[in-house]
Amino acid sequence: MLKILGLGNALVDIITPIDSDLFLHELGLPKGSMQLVDTATNRAISSKSAHLKRTITAGGSAANTIKGIAALGLSSGFIGMIAHDEYGSFYRNDLEKYKIAAYLNYSDTPTGNANAFISVDSERTFATYLGAAIEMNPQHLSENLFEEYDIIHIEGYLVQNHQLIQTAIDLAKKHGKMISLDLASYNVVEANLDFLKNIIQHGVDIIFANEEEAKSFTGLEPLDAVHHLGNHCHTAVVKIGSKGSLIKQANQLHECGIIQANPIDTTGAGDLYASGFLYGFAHGLPIPVCGQLGALLSGKVIEVLGAGIPDPLWQEIHQEVHKIKNT
Questions:
Q1: Across the chain, where does the E strand assignment appear?
Q2: How many domains does the chain have?
Q3: What is the span of the domain harbouring residue 252?
Q4: pTM higher than 0.85
């Protein structure tokens, strides 16, 4: 059984439902995007949304994926950067709750946070203050960790730090490990297109993208996009919302459906899809089964607010996973 190590921005998610998308316009946030904000803007957003009902969870794309993997029972770890502050303590405690090996570095800059605004149609828009997370650099990557784990899962939100990502890929390849990459957001792809094309051609083994991210990368619609991506890496996954997902591996195309769900909030849907898929992949399960597991977890997380699945629901998920693995 393979072990999975996550590398990503350690962020505390602040989940805020909104009644009107006019609120996003007033904040200058394009609906459905992820915008990086500075300290002053972060404070302004926090002040303007302070009267709204909010839920606070430990997050960050890669950490969400790793928590899902750990909750399924797979050995995992996470590399990130936080501060010795209230959010930082909250973050570490959350990882330890899931029995995730926490390889956390510390900064004098406050722990980062991601304001996630949930529209009435369940779409989410992020205003992300990276804080301490932006200060992570190649010196924070221990080569020993890349010897211990089998798959290194990297979130696309880190790609603005080209040197960090390239170092992680180089260390993984030096020790014969696999790299999994989630493209994260269409605007992140557009801003880092040349760099992403280079690492996907020369280092990434598994790639996850939704249809917008895939189109930003390839200029193609989902079916053509998954073939294009699959020509440059071991396994390519393009998620197409309510239509499920397309997966290409070894010149074979697989189409996977979804589970019936009552969506409340799409936050974490892609992250938890990666959890289910990588869990199946680590167990050597057939690719269609990996896709089913991804669909299961993504379908469950959109029925709750935020990217964290409540403990009682995990009992039900474990039963479903057992059925899927044994059919």
A1: 4-7, 11-17, 34-36, 55-59, 76-83, 101-107, 111-118, 124-131, 151-155, 178-182, 206-210, 235-239, 245-249, 252-256
A2: 1
A3: 4-8+59-112+131-325
A4: yes
